[in-house]
Amino acid sequence: MSKLERLLNLMAAMVEAARPITRDEIKEKLPAGTYSDNKESFRRTFERDKDELKKIGIPILFDEATQGYSIETGASKEQSLNLEPDELAALHIAFNLVRFQTSDKDNPFWKLGSHVNQEGEVQPLTEIPLDPTLSVLLGAATERQSVNFTYNEQDREVQPHRVTFKRGRWYLTGYDLNREANRNFRVNRINGKVQLGEKGSFEPPEQIKLELNEFPWRYGEESARTVTMQVEPSQASWIISYLGEKSVQKINDDGSVVIQESVCDWKAFRSFALTFLDGAEILAPKELREGIKEWLESLL
Q: How is residue 131 annotated by DSSP?
């Protein structure tokens, strides 16, 4: 993994977190191999990376109470970063500050801007070529065309709402007409040719509705498992608001809430569950409930 890719992954982990996250939590969120498994080596490399991001103007904040790190995204938009053109282009991708353009019908590409002119248009900085599937999906999302493709050996028809770069991979977010629900798709898992529908065939939903379908544990290489977790009354209203009412299985008489989530990345969900400290309990499945107990005991 290149140094630039590692810095991008580190930035993405802090930007996407809903709260300050510790150094160890950051490591768990990053792709395997980003940092060494040796604790001291990891600590030194992390500190160097953190200092380097600060030097180029990334506003990394440290919370003493939680020993967690975060990025002040509002401030980062206003700062001018001292980066080379290719580095600035990559950072723009990381923050999804990108603009879709086409040079001709068959060769779409990203044009990334370092500043805005007086007319409010982003000025082109560099061009990054895209693979054919990604190019088609970007065009379909822009033109509001339904797409048909094969995913996990199943035919899918999707209204594409957005193409996002997260955790080193591209994802398509859209409305799955077969399942009548918003879904996320790993672009590199789409097989064969993508078929396009008519332009302007649907209206995309409000952005807030898409955000509910982007939790990190819903991505991953693992087979999907339904995880049931109970959260104490003091956190019940927050978790219902955060995950949405569809995740709520039961509200108990004492005010605690039982939620269910489809989990494809257990470590990501485990990190989320641990933010509640002793205010949350994994109820099922049994192997994950026992597994988190064993993992916590190993840290003592």
A: -
Element (H, E) at 286: helix 286-299
Any residues with CB less than 8 A from the CB of 196 and at least 6 apart, and which? Answer: 136, 140, 145, 146, 147
Contacts (Cβ under 8 Å, ≥6 apart) of 128: 89, 93, 109, 110, 112
The answer as to whether 57 is a domain residue is yes
Residue 178: count of CB within 10 angstroms of its CB: 11
Q: Mean pLDDT throughout 31-44?
A: 87
Distance from C-alpha of 49 to C-alpha of 4, rounded to nearest angstrom? 10
Distance CA 294, CA 151 (A): 35
CA triplet 109, 114, 119: central angle to 5 degrees? 90
- Distance, in Å, from the CA atom of 78 to the CA atom of 95, rounded to the nearest integer, reads 14
Q: Look at the chain and count its residues.
A: 300
Encode pLDDT of 48-86 as tens digits: 888 877 765 677 888 888 899 988 654 434 444 444 444
Residue that the structure tokens 């590409």 belong to: 109
Evaluated on CA atoms 204, 206, 208, 212, the torsion sign reads negative
DSSP 127: E
Angstrom distance (rounded) from CA 20 to CA 14: 7
Asked whether residue 164 is assigned to any structural domain, the reply reads yes
Average pLDDT over residues 270-299: 88
Quote the pTM value.
0.38
Q: Say which CATH number the domain at 29 has.
A: 1.10.10.10
Domain edge (last residue) among 56, 82, 108? 82
CA-based nearest residue to 58, from 33, 94, 27, 98: 94
Evaluate whether residue 273 is within a structural domain: yes
Question: Which of 177, 180, 147 is CA-nearest to residue 162?
Answer: 147
Q: What is the token pair recorded at 149?
A: 């493709």
Query: What ranges make up the beta strands (E) of 26-168?
Result: 60-63, 68-71, 99-102, 108-116, 122-129, 147-151, 154-166
